[in-house]
């Protein structure tokens, strides 16, 4: 049974992953590369029905239900402005910063430890799990390493040094 997860990335996904693992009985710590949180960072995003349901399963839905506005219709366009799809479903459009702050604060309230200024530089398997090495010279050990560090993920680069580059689908 996994006892401790090291989660790389303290944005939206890191704290939510920590709370999901906590619900499953797995302790975790979140390590954020930047020396502070992402308060005030980002524009808007829309949580579709599946995102809202994921928050509901983790008892987080009520934290965001009053943020932003209902968005019952969502249109998806390609880079040239061509309409690709229209969906009618419950969704919520809100500021990314508001979502981040609500979820991060709730994770901390639930006892999740978040470390700032801990940029991952290396990770290696140990006899008992994994060791993460950070740019400041500190290290952490756990049973599991989770990459929640975004589009230019250092975690992914350590696992696969030559991954396909991120890009658009070209629609």
Features:
171 residues, alpha/beta, FAD/NAD(P)-binding domain, four-stranded parallel beta sheet, 12 strands, 26% helix, globular
Number of helices: 5
Shape: globular
Q: Span between N and C termini?
A: 43 Å
What is the third-level CATH name, the topology?
FAD/NAD(P)-binding domain
What is the name of the CATH architecture? Answer: 3-Layer(bba) Sandwich
The residue-averaged pLDDT reads 92
CATH classification, class level: Alpha Beta
Q: From the alpha carbons, calculate the radius of gyration and give it in angstroms.
A: 18 Å
Counting structural domains, the number is 1
List the helices and strands and how they pair.
Elements: E1 4-8, H1 13-23, E2 27-31, E3 44-47, H2 49-57, H3 61-64, E4 69-70, E5 73-77, E6 83-88, E7 92-95, H4 96-109, E8 113-115, E9 120-125, E10 130-134, E11 139-142, E12 144-147, H5 154-159
Parallel strand pairs: 1-2, 1-12, 2-8
Antiparallel strand pairs: 3-7, 4-7, 5-6, 9-10, 10-11
Helix pairs in contact: 1-4
């Amino acid at each position: 049974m996994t006892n401790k997860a090291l989660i790389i990335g303290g944005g939206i996904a890191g704290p939510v992953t920590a709370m999901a693992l906590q619900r499953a009985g797995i302790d975790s710590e979140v390590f954020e590369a930047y020396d502070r949180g992402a308060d005030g960072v980002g524009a808007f995003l829309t949580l579709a029905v599946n995102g809202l349901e994921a928050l509901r399963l983790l008892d987080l839905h009520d934290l965001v239900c009053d943020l932003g506005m209902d968005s019952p219709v969502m249109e998806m366009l390609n880079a040239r402005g061509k309409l690709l799809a229209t969906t009618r479903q419950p969704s919520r459009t809100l500021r990314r910063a508001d979502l981040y702050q609500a979820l991060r604060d709730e994770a901390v309230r639930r006892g999740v430890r978040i470390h700032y200024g801990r940029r991952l530089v290396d990770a290696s398997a140990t006899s008992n799990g994994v060791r993460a090495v950070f740019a400041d010279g500190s290290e952490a050990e756990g049973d599991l390493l989770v990459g929640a560090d975004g589009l230019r993920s250092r975690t992914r680069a350590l696992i696969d040094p030559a991954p396909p580059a991120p890009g658009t689908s070209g629609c």
